[in-house]
């Protein structure tokens, strides 16, 4: 068998973990035409688990299949739940600035929503957003915020950064140590910069057997041990980490380590490996359970799914890939409404359509949004019964 080294710790102690064929390579591209959604580019999800550090990675990942064009849309701020969560992140960052007029850099800023929220709340900070796919005005907030359609790296070492933020980027990167090392090189003249990273937590996926949370766009899945090792191998000192967003994400805070190269520190991944074993035991049982739940719901009426993001797309392509069972998807993002889900081609609608479509059940993809969705259903006097897929 071909030996595959771990991209984080370089160990050869890796083993196949999960295989899914013919999966959509994008979860957050929406299509204007159903046939284009169905005919989208596919790839192979061939996940390996490292026994040395607990890192999970897609050994078959091919970034040439990806196209982060204007069709890509992963904005979650239309949800009051997520909006409240990012408000808390903004408070966390602004309350810990080294000085009033700090310079903030965001790596992989997307369409700039998070930076705009930061700069709206604080009139003294200045900074830059880096993303090759950024679209919009390049200078905002009276010149305090500049967007660069480029990758952040050593060519920008002249920027005196006090804070570097990188949210939901590293999970898209095949060689995460290289990403962090590149950022460190850009901080050559910013020795005291604080570095903040946020990424999905594979421990949460394992613990809750979230079978629809493994997908092609994410080629790297981190636990506390593996992300700690990633930072240390790239030349950082991790100062703080915690689970956030009710455990679904990891939040890491680090600084550049100025003490020089050191030997690789062993970080025990035993708890992560145990969770992975537990996941493998339960995955097929969970898939059978939700396939049965879907079939049972269909005997009583039409079914919709709430959430046309990554979880929803993966759910569709696991349980209704030919678009024969689920009537529609519901999403609060207006840019997705009236379009079609990647891979399966399900229509994406506004929640008002739940009435006209005569939906009996709505499957909820993410338990964090339960209270918000229940409130919307009650406020607008919609009839469907909500089924929380995050509950046993």
From TrEMBL:
Every copy of the C-methyltransferase domain together lies at 285-375
Q: What is this protein called?
A: C-methyltransferase domain-containing protein
Species for this entry? Paenibacillus selenitireducens
Q: Which domain of life is it from?
A: Bacteria
Instruction: Please name the Pfam families in this protein's record.
Output: Methyltransf_14, Methyltransf_23
């Amino acid at each position: 068998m071909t030996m595959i080294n771990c991209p984080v710790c370089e160990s050869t102690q890796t083993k196949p973990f999960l295989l899914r064929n013919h999966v959509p390579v994008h979860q957050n591209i929406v299509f204007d035409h159903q046939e284009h959604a169905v005919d989208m580019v596919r790839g192979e999800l061939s996940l390996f688990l490292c026994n040395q550090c607990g890192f999970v990675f897609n050994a078959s990942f091919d970034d040439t299949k990806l196209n982060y064009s204007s069709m890509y849309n992963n904005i979650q701020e239309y949800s009051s739940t997520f909006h409240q969560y990012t408000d808390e992140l903004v408070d966390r960052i602004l309350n810990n600035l080294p000085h009033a007029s700090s310079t903030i850099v965001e790596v992989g800023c997307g369409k700039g929503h998070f930076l705009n929220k930061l700069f709206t709340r604080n009139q003294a900070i200045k900074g830059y957003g880096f993303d090759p796919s950024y679209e919009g005005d390049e200078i905002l907030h009276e010149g305090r915020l500049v967007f660069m359609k480029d990758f952040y790296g050593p060519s920008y070492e002249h920027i005196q950064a006090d804070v570097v933020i990188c949210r939901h980027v590293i999970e898209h990167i095949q060689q995460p140590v290289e990403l962090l090392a590149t950022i460190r090189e850009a901080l050559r003249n910013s020795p005291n910069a604080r570095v903040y990273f946020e990424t999905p937590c594979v421990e949460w996926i394992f613990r809750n057997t979230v079978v629809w949370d493994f997908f092609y766009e994410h080629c790297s899945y981190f636990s506390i041990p593996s992300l700690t090792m990633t930072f240390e191998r790239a030349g950082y000192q991790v100062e703080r980490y915690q689970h956030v967003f009710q455990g679904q994400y990891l939040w890491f805070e680090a600084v550049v380590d100025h003490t020089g190269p050191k030997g690789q520190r062993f970080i025990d991944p035993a708890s992560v490996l145990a969770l992975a074993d537990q996941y493998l035991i339960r995955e097929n049982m969970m898939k059978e359970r939700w396939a049965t739940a879907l079939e049972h719901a269909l005997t009583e009426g039409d079914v919709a799914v709430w959430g046309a993001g990554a979880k929803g797309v993966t759910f569709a392509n696991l349980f209704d890939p030919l678009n024969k069972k689920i009537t529609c998807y519901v999403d609060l993002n207006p840019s997705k409404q009236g379009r079609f889900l990647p891979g399966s081609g399900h229509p994406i609608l506004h929640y008002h359509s739940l009435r006209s479509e005569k939906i009996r059940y709505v499957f909820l993809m993410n338990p964090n949004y339960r209270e918000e969705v229940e409130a919307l259903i009650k406020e607008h006097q919609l009839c469907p019964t909500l089924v929380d897929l995050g509950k046993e």
